[in-house]
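Input/output pair, single chain:
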Amino acid sequence: MSYDGVGPRAVMRSVAFLTAGALAVPLLTGCGSEDETSKPLAGQDIAPAARAQVTQGGTLRWAVDTVPETFNTFQSDADATTTRVAQAVLPSLYRIDENGRAQRNPAYLESAKVVDSEPRQVVLYKLNQQAVWSDGREIGAADFAAQWRALSGKDSAYWTARNAGYDRIEKIERGENDLEVRVTFARPYADWQSLFSPLYPKQVMGTPDSFNDGARRKLKVTAGPFVVKKVDRKNEQVRLARNPRWWGRPAKLSEIVLTAVPREKRAAALAAGKLDLAEIDPAAAQRIDKASAPKGAAGPRSVASGSSGAAEKSGAAEKKADDKPSKAGKAETTDASLGGFEVRRSLEPAYTQLALNGADGPLADERVRRAVARALDRTALAALVLKPLGLPAVPVGSHLALSGQDAYADGSGALGGQDTAEAQALLADAGWVVGGPIKEGTGEKAAGAEGEKSKDKKSDEKKEEKKEEKKEKEKEKDENEEDKNKNDDGTYIVGQDGKAPAEATGGKDLAQDGKQQLTHPHQGGAPGAYAPKGTAAPANAAAGALAKNGKALSLRFVLPSGPGSESLRQVASRISRMLAKVGIRTETVKVADDSYFKDHVASGSYDLALYSWPASAFPATDARPIYAKPQPAADGSLNVGQNYTRVGTDQVDQLFDQAISTLDEGEERDLIRKADTRIWAAAGSIPLYQRPQLTAARKNLANAGAFGFQTPVYEDMGFLEKGARPAAHPSGT
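Output:
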């Protein structure tokens, strides 16, 4: 599993349904007008074709990570494959479009609107009169009511993973006829469109036993373009077949076979003709590009790095391969078999962040967290990952949305862009100085740090670190050479458009818990993000260790060690060098993939960590648990929920509460943007880049590939008629 991917997937709706991406918005106070609409950084890449160009029939063989433990998306062990199956076989009243925004699904819903707001909010759903379950029964109020009761949180016998939104419902009843459903809320709920997607039949939701066990291994009753035909756990396959009772546009494919294939084995499975569609890593993408390119030409939209160093290494590898014709011949044969595929590229509706554990240790001090953030060149980090893939290398500007979505606005100005002098000044103000006395064995421990590793293990890790650092420095040198003749240095500093980000805060500091800590205003950031005027930056910070009270400043950077996380480790190496320039040292600790999140990130055994969050079309609901202020539990421990950085403020909680309770869409959007600026100012997590999405697809496969934000339209997928051609690749990718 790649931890450059979405980390805790199962806890977010985007894992399941209505999250398609990220939310994005213009800065609350500066970087654009209030009504400015952002666009996705990269369009979807699915080889779109009209249905008339797609042949009737055929089987699509699609690689997935797992055969799911459950087909109930509301259970804690639901995963991405649970979502994929649910999207194909169950009703979703709303689905996400290519801009990451929720749109009514006419196959199930003729209309839905708030018909009353006083004394209670009432939503009236008018269902498509043709919508029926696979057993012939009409979809109706009984299904809505059963799902509400199961997910309301009032009956602990239902083993639910989440109940957000359903806990605000007061009652559900039939309207004027069987096609109308009236939902009355006890408390106003802005994100009511997030509910009932997916919608399960009352046979699943009606009792605790059926909810807990009835949909784990099978789905008997469904209502989508496909049905679950067979679950073969021995061969790790889920077979979906065309639904004969489907009332919408008939599915083009006869079957979809979802097969669990490890990421590192997908290129071989594609070459062997066992798959038609698979998400892949950059190395596999490079092989496919090379195999599908005309002889003597570079692969289309090459994934390979443009650096001369990489080219020289590649040439050396090819020369070495020439000395071993048998192996080379076998590799060439395998890659030639990949010529029938192409790589479709977009950006996932998820972003990778640097998490800073603020529970204790040096990062408990907001000034140190801000210093870490100010040391980072986020544009360079985005370029490191995305530029070699031919994708837009633009850093993410919001914790709560991605570019293209209604809620997106670049709120990073509340913290400020990369600035070495400001970072050093913040550290000095926090008491970390160069050349201070260091007591042996008193270096600051990581928050929740584990016991000391053996000297041999540390030595081995150091050697490995040096190897990766050498490779990283070579790559950085090549990139710098490439950019040195440009007019700017590529540094991204929010606020240099001449607008004052301080407007967002009314001139007040955005410090944790709303207390003013620092009051030195500065162009490119909100007040509070800088050390007081006159604070001297430590001289030669990068050359000497910073210390305070006899303790050296060193942060424990925990990373997954698996083969799918090379990109993440490259990013970590670059971050460590950026921090070294301001005097912050890091100790890299690599851990097993299967323990990385559970035993380190979730438990708080780290100072710095990299992982990804999916973005949601409903951030007021879905993002609140991630940024809510941790609360003391009855046993004296800290209840952090999903806030693994342990950094939160009362102000952010209040803004989320206000956003979820207003029925004014514009007001909700503004409150979400305002919450994001305060999350930036607290510096618990630093968004870096939107995750790349690379999908290998058979060249004649239409309406499938790198979907970006959009919910896949399963009934339109299929293979092109002979002689038909899909539309061109989207621009910008």
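The chain has a mean pLDDT of 81. The first strand starts at residue 59 and ends at 64.
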